[in-house]
Amino acid sequence: MRPLNDILTYCNEVAFDLNFTYAKKWKTEKSNRALVGFLPIYFPREIIHAVNGLAIGVMGAGDHKQIIKGDAYYQSYICHLPRGIIEMALDHSLETFDGFIFPAICDCVRNLSGMFKLAKKGQFQRYFDYPQNFDASIGGVFYNQELHKISEDVFKVNGVKLTTENLNQSIKLYNTNRKLIEEIYNIRQEYPWRLSAVDTYKIVRAGLSITVENHNKILEEVIGNITEESGEPMDNIRVVINGSFCEQPPLGLIKSIEMAGCYIVDDDFMLGSRWIQGDVEDDTNDPLGALVNAYLTKSTFSSAVYDVGNPKGKRLVQLAKNRNADGVIFSAASFCDPALLDRPELQKECDAVGIPHINFQYHENTGQFKVIKEQAGTFSDSIKLWA
Amino acid sequence: MADPKEAIKEKSMVIQKDMLANLFKELSNTKESGKKVVYTFVPGNLTELILSFDMLPVYPEINALQSGMRKKSAAYIREAEKLGFSEDVCTYVKCDIGMMLNGNIGPTGEKLPPPDLLLLSYTGCFTFMKWFENLERLYPGVPVAMLHTPYQEDGCITQEQIDYMVKQLKEEVIPKMEMVAGKKFDMQRLSEMMVNSAKSEDLLVKILESAKNKPSPIDAYFAGVYYIGPIFTAFRGTDEAVEYYTELWNEVQERMRLGLGPITPEGELKEEKFRLVVEGPPNWTNFREFWKIFYDMGAVIVASSYTKVGGVYDLGFRHDEKFPLESLAKYCMGCYTNLNLPQRVNLLADYVKEYKADGFLINSIKSCNSFSAGQLMIMREIEQRAGVPVGFIESDLVDPRYFSYANIKNRLESYFQMLGQRKVIMAQEEATV
Ligand code: SF4
Ligand code: SF4
């Protein structure tokens, strides 16, 4: 077992490598491999894995790249994520990728899929539409067809056909991945001082840049490290972060919240990796159906999913209770319609049960955190005071 | 700004005014009449289906734009922002929610009835979903029917997508409508309405395509959204809609015969100097001032994308009496904002060529991601493909804070100057050849 610091150094390197060196190397190691980029939030990576592919998260340029061309493609009132991604597409960081998947979460991502089509980036550029009907015989059938399209896309790239056996095997690996990530969150719930939120973030995000097999090993090693006591508990409050599911907050922002006296006990930063709650069936004759069923019945709550009948406000409150959180921090990217249009309702649900909350907006390349730190600090102090 | 009453009114405009007034009267009278009210959206609207149940449609976007025109939107938006809605999000949503919190007073000054059904036709804009999730909480207990329209991501409509939509119509939307309306779905009636829809659609296309003439007898953006389009959404499928479009088409033919330009709020445009294709919604808070900048410069909009959010009929789609549900599905999927970017570029580049436009202009809306994200790339593509000068201005739909008259006027004046110079150069070149 490697020491935690070594693991963190590695995770930091792969998670923020906007040249995707690991993935590109992986592709050249064997013929008939396919490299597929996907955008936030959730994409069932199992289906790519099963056809000899590697699905890599393209989560934006963050504060790691100066945007030169990207700004010429977007007005100032569009969020930052797509301009970083188009910058990467134009400066060739995404070369060697065989295709791109744009999950249906908002019109910016939807239209970005069209921009990739116009710019002819990759061999396929697929807007991946999720059903907003959760009846297996309606939305389920539709989702099944969407998944088929992806496997056909990859087949055209590498000639590898989807088989029951392979998909079951891939599902197993991702079930393990989700379980291990959840275990880390559970340990952190009890002992948040053992692993900071920033480090947790790096570890989970690294999983979007490497193979699942490799990531599972890392997660096991992390668990090995944090099962034993380390660090000192602090007099911090416990918060859940909500609204950061797409454009990612800069590390400085997460750090500032922690330094202001908040243990982040749950968040939606890397929501896609934790989307399916529980296991996907991994021993059926219809593994594609199992993925569909998991999406329809085991998805977490999200601004990207129609929630009438299962309101996300209630689910957020439940999450805060399960995590024994003292408050919620609504932290959304500026100009993010999905997150910001949900915010008033989520706040109302928190108010209804007396969960305190604050909110702020950020850009992925925000460089100043003084105000946010002060706000989070005051939030933490007031909760401690009233407790 | 001139009072709307001073504007020239043709017979069709009078018919339109009466039709809308009657609708709002009916809406204010639902308590007595017992008619049920369906809130729904313009893109992907299921007007024929709603009307076939004798229910009345209310379109929140239309309320929002009307609030913008009546200078009420600023206060409504502020109200919604006080509730916690960010400055950054779609102002239609905020305006609608603010209006509802302020007594839900409609464009005629009468109170709009609350919905009996929220019909979320989720077509071409992600924000629609958020909007109705919010409305569902503001109108607790009101049933919501969701119709998810798949995006034309591959640039075509597949049989699987049609099946998905028809199934939703049969198993989700129609049962909820039956429950709310208290009556059985009548396929025959829906089919009959579609005969009228197709007639109106034929006429609408003829009217819009009349702008291919020089001079154009219509303005296909300002007049398009103000006079030509609105009837379409709420009345498609009715005899009155056919009557209205027949009258309008007669008037347009007469204008063509006489070689007249479009009617503006200050009378007929005497000289058509520039022909433009416009992409993006208009600004509503300063609609007349905005329009005036164009007609003062002799600019006519010969084609626009915004008049296609309720359907791109010029590409051939018609509601089909033989396959009513299938054609509702195809209709929803064919609306402009449900087209992928390459399709939008093709359509707009074709417009520039077919309508012999001198330029292509984008009015980018601050709070509308559905239109605005990707527009700058559309602009580059059109410039390359169509070879006409492109222009770019920014405003908002209903938030007056983002309408800067001086700024827009300056930009447009420079743009028209450039178009003018280009025309002179082209004429000189032609003369020397
Ligand atoms: S940050 Fe929000 S608006 Fe921007 S791409 Fe992501 S989900 Fe869409
Ligand atoms: S984002 Fe644009 S298309 Fe969507 S509701 Fe708002 S104004 Fe309409």
- N- to C-terminal separation of chain A? 40 Å
Binned strand content of chain A: 5-15%
Strand count, sense and barrel status of the largest sheet of chain A are: 4 strands, parallel
**Structural class per helix/strand content of chain A?**
alpha/beta
Largest sheet of chain B: 4 strands, parallel
Low-confidence stretches of chain B: 1-5
- Order the strands across the largest sheet of chain A as they lie in space: 2-1-3-4
User: How far from one another are the termini of chain B?
Assistant: 46 Å
Query: What is the highest CATH level, the class of the domain at 16-185 in chain B?
Result: Alpha Beta
| Number of continuous helical runs of chain B | 18
CATH architecture of the domain at 23-160 in chain A: 3-Layer(aba) Sandwich
What is the H/E order of chain B? HHEHEHHHEHEHHHHHEEEHEHHEHHEH
The number of E-state strands of chain A comes to 8
Helical content band of chain B: 40-55%
Give the beta-strand count of chain B: 10
The side-by-side strand order for the widest beta sheet of chain B comes to 2-1-3-4
Radius of gyration of chain A: 20 Å
Biggest interface, and residues per chain? A-B, 54 and 53 residues
What is the CATH class name of the domain at 23-160 in chain A? Alpha Beta
Shape of chain A: globular
Weakly predicted, low-confidence segments of chain A? none
